[in-house]
TrEMBL record, chain A:
Locations listed in the record: Cell membrane
Keywords: Cell membrane, Electron transport, Heme, Iron, Membrane, Metal-binding, Respiratory chain, Translocase, Transmembrane, Transmembrane helix, Transport
Coiled-coil region(s): none
Provenance organism: Streptomyces morookaense (Streptoverticillium morookaense)
Record bears the keyword Ribosomal protein: no
Protein name: Cytochrome bc1 complex cytochrome b subunit
TrEMBL record, chain B:
Source species of the chain: Streptomyces morookaense (Streptoverticillium morookaense)
Stated name of the protein: Cytochrome bc1 complex Rieske iron-sulfur subunit
Record's subcellular location: Cell membrane
Subunit record text: The cytochrome bc1 complex is composed of a cytochrome b (QcrB), the Rieske iron-sulfur protein (QcrA) and a diheme cytochrome c (QcrC) subunit.
Zinc in keyword set: no
Transmembrane region(s): 55-76, 96-117, 161-181
Membrane topology qualifier: Multi-pass membrane protein
Amino acid sequence: MSTATDNRRKAPAGERVADWADGRLGIYSLAKANMRKIFPDHWSFMLGEVCLYSFLIIILTGVYLTLFFHPSMNEVVYHGSYVPMQGMRMSEAYKSTLDISFDIRGGLLLRQIHHWAALVFLAAMMLHMMRVFFTGAFRKPREINWLFGFLLLVLGTFTGFTGYGLPDDLLSGTGIRIAQGLILSIPLVGTYISMFLFGGEFPGTDFVARFYSIHILLLPGIMLGLVVAHLILVVYHKHTQFPGPGRTEKNVVGMPLMPVYMAKAGGFFFLVFGVIAAIAAIATINPVWAMGPYRPDQVSTNAQPDWYLGMSEGIFRAMPGWEINIAGHTLVLGVFIPLLIFGLVLTAMAVYPFLESWVTGDKREHHLLDRPRNAPTRTAFGVAWLVMYGVGLVNGGNDLWATHFHLSVNSVTWFVRITFFTAPIVAFIVTRRICLGLQRRDRDKVLHGRESGIIKRLPHGEFVEVHEPLSQDQLFTLTSHEQPKPLELEPEVDENGVTRKAGASQRLRAKLSKGFYGEGTHIPKPTAEEYHEITSGHGHH
Amino acid sequence: MSSQEIPEENLPSTQGEAHAGAVATADPFADPGLPPHEHRIQDIDERAAKRSERVVAMLFVLSMLATVGFIASYVTLPVDKNIYVFPIGHISALNFALGLTLGVALFCIGAGAVHWARTLMSDVEVADDRHPIEASPEVKAKVMADFREGAKESALGRRKLIRNTMFGALALFPLSGVVLLRDLGPLPGTKLRKTAWSQGKMLINQNTLQPLRPEDIQVGSLTFAMPEGMKEEDEDFQNEIAKAALMIVRLRPENIKDKRELDWSADGIVAFSKICTHVGCPISLYEQQTHHVLCPCHQSTFDLSDGGRVIFGPAGHALPQLRIKVNDKGFLEAMGDFAEPVGPAYWERG
């Protein structure tokens, strides 16, 4: 005791570990900024979480699968435990997939979780992007994060496709064959890309091994980096929030990361994982044993890609078979044009934030979300895009529509050929009108109150419904959105009499801006005067 | 539970009252500020909070039990046992048991954590300030000054020789990487133009592996064939069958509309490439009455009685026909390779 110079109580072990780490990593400064970071609450904000968690589930189960899968196209004769296939020639890739499914305990479960999680991942990304799009969350400062998300969607699609091809069963091989046919249609370089990708003619003996390294290393590696960058930006920008009382562009209202969101978000990971595991227990997906090994001269009917390629599949099915032969060369337009359209439909997504900011001239930061009805033109664009996507998706299963609804596959295809172009236009117009209708309803609600459902009989016998005035919270929420004015071209002659012609791009921009914000694109918000006039009481109802 | 049971002193005094700090203004649409916190039953009644605690703990215990069940299923259930589960049908017992126990184990952890957060952790909403992303003008000025300083010290702008040679070196070295990719595969050459068919090769039935005789093929049946001498064990079998696969039908000669098709047939038997000219799926659906064949991948439809012409769908050109005859031993044999490349069109096809 005599040697003790420090009488202070020794810090608890956890604190000492944290001190040690802080001296090397500076974790206290990090925690100061982030441990009690505020996240706003809304059910739609969890869609992004579903993406993140299904991605993690895919990685976890994928690593397990690599322990047993043999990415080899060496041919072997099957002598495993699945009796119907015994004695058949197949690639080692297919054989090891059968082994995972029939011999390794839990192998089938993890294979199915992996596949289901991939479908959920892509679906959640689409829904998450829809949420971000329709609420305008992609606006400054989040355009780059929108692009990261977009890249994740594209790379996720390719990763899904390369994974789909790995088991080397009849269905996956057919999918790869189709992709090879698409590659061949690329002018000038198609055959070269195909030969280089497959190490010679299709199918060759290389593609499983090559797709394997692309599927488990190259693409997921890039995606992991993008996911991390995406999350860092979410934290850095702080989450967007819906407008409401006390919520401004300058604050973020919600609950702290620790403990609420640690528990909620951490718990949500387990919820997503649990649900996908249960689905994998009861719903068989990709039963490779039912298809048999791949043979380029065999096919199963009702061949369908995974859902996220259904739209591209649909436009390949819808396109008429145009081919132009000139000077000993073939332009395979019937295949190449859908390939371009698919690229364009995706690119439209990527560039939209930049297009909107250019057209509207809006370069401010936005942290308050739009309600979709209050941005009718954007909402209409989004719905038009979705309708186009949906029509393509329908045609991706045109054979199934035909057989299930007793239609002619030709009529289904013709229907899609026409509606692929017309339905988005109709959807655009209808959506804009619906948005205006909803705006009108908001206006009525603000000025006349909520319909209470109470019928009152007046002394002279008239029946009226009592309208209940909204609270100030509600009034504020319904009226706080902006109603921007379209950009005006600067006058051609300025105040000094100097003529200045607006360039073509300026004129286009003004025109588009008018389309976005001009006449007929919004219902004027009620003003305080209108409100006072109506509520000052003249026996109205 | 009714509110009478809640001890008086726990009842909030502020609940439902006006906003703290709200400013009365003439503007009915002014921001009233953050709404007051609304208490949950767990905030004011300790018994409700206890109940929540028990629910959370029960969920966590359930999860533990499910994990024990997972391990027990793994150890006890044989991997090849199938069971009937209504309404799914016959499924692997092990997969079913492992998946459900794992699902329950995970779901209960999640449900417990979320219930804990929703009922017992603070649900008071607080506001945090945002700061503009853009730097202040002073910071920007400092950075620009630093950058100019650094650029000046590097002398990159002044010593053009260094700059240009460096850009040259950096631009050239990735070429090594590009060159290294050359051996990914051979050049296309004429590989896509040739198949395993040649003059005198007999048509071998894919199912029986026997040479085909004309009498083996009836009107209305679809037969698949490959060239004589090809074996499944061959190293390049997959590549060759991907081009050489053949479908054979018999038509009544008077039903053949195309003159060349008739010339290239033998006893009304016509042989067409099985590989779709759209993107290469094997065609497998045959309509006996109309002699149309349909590709199951993208529904391209070809008329085998009219030179394999495309009558619907995305395929861009007719199915190539193989010229056949009956040889002196009475077997069907090819009179050469296909006259044009089989399968999907490509730039060099012409």
